[in-house]
Amino acid sequence: MKRHRPIFVRISGVIFLLIIPIAILYAYFSRTSLEVIDSQITVNNESKLIFLKNQIESNIERLSLTSGVLARDSSILSLQLNILIKDYYEMIYYQTQVKEKLQLQSLSSNWRNNLSVFLPESRRRISTDPSDTYDESILQKGLNGTWQLQAGDGGEGPYYQMLVWDPYQSYESQQNVIAVFEVRFGLDNIRKILLDYKQDNPGQAFLLTRSGAAFTGSPANDQDAAKAGRELLAAGIGDAGHHSMEIDSQKAFVSYAYLPALDVYLVDYVPLNIIHAPIIESRNLFYLTFVVLLLLGLIASYLLYLNVQKPISAVVKGLKKFEMGDYSFRIRKRFNNEFDYMMLRFNEMGEVIQHLIRDVYEEQNRSRLATLKQLQSQINPHFLYNCLSFIAACAKAGETETIKEMTYHLGDYYRYTTRVENQRPRLHEEVALIENYLNIYALRLERLNYRIEIPLGMQEEPVLRLILQPVVENAIIHGIEPVPGTGTIWVSAYQEESFNVLAVEDSGTGMATEAMEQYIKGLDEPMDEHTGCGLWNVNQRLVQQFGPGAGIFLEQSLQLSGLRVMLRWRRETGGNETDEASALARR
């Protein structure tokens, strides 16, 4: 029978079936929202980064054009000429004029910068910074028309410097140099732009050199940015793009763009937890609510289980006990609800049924005992008539020894059969009866041999009275007597699982398979005029007393030529037979 699941399990299953799809859909929508936000942030960050890049490049380009403007100014050439002819008055005039032009060019830029003109011929330097002096090493380390990052010295921080030779080709030969123009701006200009950029964006923007150095809006953040930059460089980057990577054990979205003028990357990275925080917080709140609702649903289901399912289960358990024949079962639990009245009525019903069943059962037992005694009495009369006829014949022939032996065996036989006070003798008592019975038949037929092999461990097994004698009698009458010559009866026993088995085999002609099947079928049907009473009686007694699995079973004998009849009944004591005895009995 299919087992019914408790209401608690089924309701819990329904709750899960309702809530889990909602959770899955919400997780899908949440993930989709995060993907959309990430894509929008990608576009937005790249757009802002490009704008910032263009802003920096426009200022750098404006400063780069300064050297070209100064190179076309005739004041520098005039200054150089007056220095050579040592016209100090004109030299001061043109030097002042060059300095003023440098100041004007410097002030025309949005960034704070420093412009200088080196005059290698006269070893002079004109600069917007009065503290600058002519330093030949600056020219020797500098590259023509290329921005270089300098570390700075003294109180001056890092700065970018570009030197332009005039004429441009004079850089290669270091001859015919008219002037060298220096454009210099501090990293503070870029830091200020990055700081302003950070105020409108949640992330961190910085410049990243190819060597791994980083510059942010605040020098205090340079080390952290450098660490992120080195991880970015290790991942491999192009001229522009974006990456999702882990920085300081946090997932971050990184956008970058290459600044060819400065040979650096402009990088912007935003930790994803900052972007996703509102959505994650909303999602966590939903999941918390989801768990609370799930727990409330399970609690409600459990309360329903306690107050409805358990009382019903108690009634079902009682009904199953009644179905199995246990009418003494009573429901002892109290549920403190409307079901208590049902339990009280159930217990009262069980008590009434138990009394009725007990009365009917006792009446059936009395009827069954009468039936058993009647069946037992049916076995004895015809055998006695045959024995008395044999004794009479022997008396006429004067064979007193045969009469004496027959009388002793017959007396022992009937002494046992007439003792009705013990209906459950031991197996060895039944075997002793069979020995007397076979000896009587051996005297009558004078061509009967027999073997009895009962393991010692089985001889104390309880058995019904007179169940073996009808089987042996049937083997003699239908197996041995119709066949000419000496016949053999073999009685053996063995145990299998929870059953005892007695086997009686004869050396007769046996029985056809179809006839055997028909005979076995007739043993379980009501007795009629065509049914032999011997085996039928034994089979009915075994089945009535020991239930399913007990009874008589037939098969062809493998050792002798006739039939093998097996009597099976349920064991009540542990058998002590050896494996050899069991194997011998099965042969």
Topology summary:
Blueprint: H1 7-71, H2 74-85, H3 88-107, E1 113-119, E2 124-127, H4 136-141, E3 148-150, E4 159-166, H5 170-173, E5 179-186, H6 187-199, E6 204-209, E7 214-215, H7 222-235, E8 240-247, E9 250-259, E10 264-271, H8 272-323, H9 339-379, H10 381-397, H11 400-417, H12 427-445, E11 448-453, H13 469-480, E12 487-496, E13 499-506, H14 513-523, H15 533-546, E14 551-556, E15 563-570, H16 579-586
Parallel strand pairs: 11-12
Antiparallel strand pairs: 1-2, 1-5, 3-4, 4-5, 6-7, 6-10, 8-9, 9-10, 12-13, 13-15, 14-15
Helix pairs in contact: 1-8, 2-3, 8-9, 9-15, 10-11, 11-12
Task: Write up what this structure looks like.
By secondary structure, this protein is α+β, with helices and mostly antiparallel strands. It has 3 domains: 1-291, no CATH class; 325-372, no CATH class; 380-586, Histidine kinase-like ATPase, C-terminal domain (Heat Shock Protein 90), CATH 3.30.565.10. 56% of the residues lie in helices and 17% in strands. It has helices at 7-71, 74-85, 88-107, 136-141, 170-173, 187-199, 222-235, 272-323, 339-379, 381-397, 400-417, 427-445, 469-480, 513-523, 533-546, 579-586, and strands at 113-119, 124-127, 148-150, 159-166, 179-186, 204-209, 214-215, 240-247, 250-259, 264-271, 448-453, 487-496, 499-506, 551-556, 563-570. The strands form 3 sheets. Strands 2-1-5-4-3 form a 5-stranded antiparallel beta sheet. Strands 7-6-10-9-8 form a 5-stranded antiparallel beta sheet. Helix 9 (339-379) runs antiparallel to helix 15.
